[in-house]
Amino acid sequence: MKKNAKEKIVKAAISLFNSNGYSGTSIRDIASQANVNSATIAYHFENKLGVLEYCFTHFFEQYINIIDEQFALIDQGAKECLKRITAELLHFQCENIELTSFVYRELSMNSQMVREIMATYSIKEKYYFQKIFEKGFERKEFRPHSIPYLIIQYKGLLMMPFIHAHYLREVLYIFPNERFFEQKYLKELFIWIEATLGNRVIEKKEAIL
Fold first, then answer.
1. pLDDT at residue 204 is higher than 60
2. Cβ neighbours of residue 88 under 8 Å, at least 6 residues apart?
3. Roughly what angle, to the nearest 10 degrees, separates helices 48-71 and 123-138?
4. Which domains does the chain have, with CATH numbers?
C-alpha cells in the first residue's frame, strides 16, 4: 500500500510540475491528484523539495544507466555506440515525456539543485560523450571536431522536442509521445551523426588511393 501511495504521489507530481511548474504546484495539489493526504507525502518525501529531488534522481539515474550500458560496448565501434545510446535515450524520453519535459525546463534555472545535478550526472554524461568522440577520432570513424561543440549540437537535437513539446503539438501537430515520432526523429538523428561525424571524406580519399 505504501509503495502504491509513493508511486501515485510521484506520478501526480510529475504531471503537475510539467503542467503548472514547480513553483505553481503545492503539496495540497499533489495530495489531491494522488488521492492521498499531505502527511503521506511528508512520510515519503518530507516536503515538496523532496519530491522534486526524487523526480530528478529518478530521471537521471535511468538516463546515465542507459549511457553506461551502451558505452560498455564501445569496442564494437564508436559510431555504433553513439547510435545505440541515441536510440535508447530517445525511447526513454518519449516513454517518459512529462518527466523529461519538466526536468529539461528546470535545468535552465540557476538553482542549487541544478548545480548539484551539473556536478554529478551532467559531468558523467560529458565524460561518456567525450570518450565516444575521442575513440571515434582515434579510429578514424569520425572527422575531427571540437568536442564541446559536438556535445552542444547533439544535446540540442536530443532535448529540443521535449523542451518544446507544447510547440510541437500545438503548432507543428507533432506528438513526441507517439511511436511514429520516435521512429522518424531517430532517423533524423542518425542522419546528423552520419553527416556531421561520418568520415566520408577520408573514406573517399582512401578509395582513390
1. no
2. 66, 69, 70
3. 20
4. 1-46 (1.10.10.60), 52-208 (1.10.357.10)
